[in-house]
Each structure stands twice: as structure tokens, then as C-alpha cells.
């Protein structure tokens, strides 16, 4: 019997999406507003800060890992407020 970490349990069974599929969830082409961070895709649609598909200089429908790790004024814990809806291929 193997033990899984909390992170593994969160991602087990989630669908995977390509960067092209993620790009369609930018809040303009469709109603969904998704962003990727460290391989996980988060639905940020309910956030008023992402309502128009962007948050300051960050745009939805993209992998924001490099941008956020480089210059975000907050920690990755900000994503704890949003559901993980998939994994980035």
C-alpha cells in the first residue's frame, strides 16, 4: 500500500488540457476564466479581480508560473481560494 501526498490526492483523476485549450478560457472567447500555475489549472471565474480576463498585467488563459514566481506580490497560497479543475499537459 502506497501513501499519497495531499497534492497527489488533489490531482488524481483530473482532466488534462493543452495550452491551446487553456488559451480559450481567457474570459473573452468563453465565459470560463482559467489560469495555470505549476501544472495545475485553476478556475478563477468567480474572482472579481479576474472578471475581464486579466488581473493587473497578467492574462487568463495562460500558464502564469514564471510570471508569478518572478514578481507576484503574494504567495502561491492565493490559489487556495480557487478550485483546481484540471492539469496542464
TrEMBL record:
Residues 17-89 form the Cytochrome b5 heme-binding domain. It holds the Pfam family Cyt-b5. It comes from the Bacteria. InterPro entries: Cyt_B5-like_heme/steroid-bd, Cyt_B5-like_heme/steroid_sf. This is Cytochrome b5 domain-containing protein.
Amino acid at each position: 500500500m502506497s501513501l499519497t501526498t495531499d497534492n497527489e490526492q488533489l490531482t488524481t483523476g483530473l482532466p488534462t488540457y493543452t495550452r491551446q485549450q487553456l488559451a480559450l478560457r481567457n474570459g473573452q472567447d468563453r465565459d470560463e476564466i482559467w489560469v495555470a500555475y505549476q501544472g495545475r489549472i485553476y478556475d478563477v471565474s468567480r474572482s472579481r479581480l479576474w472578471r475581464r480576463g486579466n488581473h493587473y498585467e497578467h492574462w487568463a488563459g495562460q500558464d502564469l508560473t514564471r510570471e508569478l514566481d518572478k514578481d507576484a506580490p503574494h504567495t502561491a497560497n492565493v490559489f487556495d481560494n480557487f478550485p483546481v479543475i484540471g492539469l496542464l499537459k
